[in-house]
UniProtKB/TrEMBL annotation:
The chain crosses the membrane at residues 96-116, 123-143, 205-221. Residues 228-247 are annotated as: Disordered. This is Integral membrane protein. Keywords: Membrane, Transmembrane, Transmembrane helix.
Amino acid sequence: MKVPLSLPSNGPVRRFVRREWGPLLLAVRYALSTQRWRAVPMTLGAVALTSLFQVVQNQPWGFRPVQLIGSVKAEDALWISLLRTPLSLFVPALDLPVWGALAQLLLVFGVAEICIGRRHTLLIAYAATLAGTMYARVGIALGPDSVLGLPASDAKMVDTGPSAAVVGLAVYVCWRYRAYWTAGVVVASMVGEVLVKDNLAGKEHLAAIVAVGVLCWITTVRQKRRRARAGQGRRTGSLSGAPPIKS
């Protein structure tokens, strides 16, 4: 079912908005208008869980339990980090305002859940987070003298939490819906973050973008091969006299 987009086609700005965000806005508006909050149950759960972790970790008795189940550091054993990674997405950073993390989760996770589905949203989110986690270990092993290296002190720093997942999902959704300018702005802002403030979080964001870029490339290659096989099958069917098969 197609829902008309109420954006006039006159004017370069409106044409750009229609071309860049039109399909994305249509998908989100249609889902919210037909299902309302039932369209994003996973996102609402993620926001609620992040809020809960924020409240608990700020209690005198709650900081240690939250760190034990959701804090990922490069100095920890790899198997411990892998066990904590799923919940680390929902543990907000202590030095940043929690409302920023909640707004990012609500917006980016919500759009992703509507546009690419819950399973793909979780897959991309965890892939981006895991890429940042693994990069921290590799960067510390390379050392500060390497371009991609990190100082040994970063081993004691907590990973990015939900921000790497948010960045990765934003880039992936923009790629899927051909909002290439928006994806470019996200990538450029992350590069600028590293140039202005060269810290572990910024470099983990770039690692998440690289991981998502590899997933986009793999998806593109698979789609091209699938289309090539479908075209070859149609040509084979027409040469044999059999009617073409529609998939």
